[in-house]
């Protein structure tokens, strides 16, 4: 009988100590899912003069030409391979193994923290965990959100408008290197969701050390020559404008999730685009990540302590996971688990030999790439 364990999502730790996030490396991902380690070619730069709001920009323009790259059957949008290749490059450069207990994407940890606050209907948890070389690797097996509606549906237009907003407010290079013609043609640019820039960040809570991959929307001001540019990154979001009390409450829930996303990896700036019912961009507002807890505390008594509560659950969950999973430093030993949300608990179950997923998880490349496994088994670090 394999290992099983669970944790109640209302469990909290007293510790709120956090490690300062530090960028270890980065990579770019192209529309065909090619991974370019140490390459910043897909990093965008924020540029949006307020005067452009007078143009009443349509956030559904070009929707029929949208390139939905994540729906390709040849693409695994949840793959850890780019993250692992960047970690391997870091270990070769530093001649030491990355110091981490848990390695995954920011979105996975955000999903696990959100399980204590959101309905499982809107936040399904279905993860696979591999323990290898004394470290825990977590991968999401649910497909990320895509829209199944038609281009005429409100659902699809809402989905598309977020990508269109990013396209309208960013440029591919620093402003002095972008032609006036390119700037003026931004509203007609074909939008895709395949080009990505991913930062690899070391962070932690309590005694747990994590390395997280996080997609970065843009540089807000300028990029430094050093590897660590976390303080210059920004998160871009687009939502319907707030005109009623009910809409204000929905936005407060939304901005809490955005805070969580940024807080986890040390992104300090959040930029929201607000649209009307006809998907015309009406305003652009900037927030600092640190001011979000104060905004929530002042405006919504129900959310006054939600950020601190999230940190306490973050610490409780990671501590439980480290205490529950045996971590053998023998790189030849690989064990697999499934983590799901059931009845207000996160439930962990070992996947044993004979299970339909076992071969792909333990011996295949469903989570860990063969290249990374060979590197760790051969490296004297």
Automatic annotation (TrEMBL):
GO terms, molecular function: metal ion binding; mRNA 5'-diphosphatase activity; nuclease activity; nucleotide binding; RNA binding
Catalytic reaction annotation: a 5'-end (N(7)-methyl 5'-triphosphoguanosine)-ribonucleoside-ribonucleotide in mRNA + H2O = a (N(7)-methyl 5'-triphosphoguanosine)-nucleoside + a 5'-end phospho-ribonucleoside in mRNA + H(+); a 5'-end triphospho-ribonucleoside in mRNA + H2O = a 5'-end phospho-ribonucleoside in mRNA + diphosphate + H(+); a 5'-end NAD(+)-phospho-ribonucleoside in mRNA + H2O = a 5'-end phospho-ribonucleoside in mRNA + NAD(+) + H(+)
Swiss-Prot/TrEMBL GO biological process terms: NAD-cap decapping; nuclear-transcribed mRNA catabolic process
Cofactors: a divalent metal cation
EC number, as in UniProt: 3.6.1.-
Segments forming domain RAI1-like: 19-372
Chief place of localization: nucleus
Subcellular location: Nucleus
PANTHER family for this protein: DECAPPING AND EXORIBONUCLEASE PROTEIN, DOM-3 RELATED
Primary role: Decapping enzyme for NAD-capped RNAs: specifically hydrolyzes the nicotinamide adenine dinucleotide (NAD) cap from a subset of RNAs by removing the entire NAD moiety from the 5'-end of an NAD-capped RNA.
UniProt family annotation: Belongs to the DXO/Dom3Z family.
This protein's name: Decapping nuclease
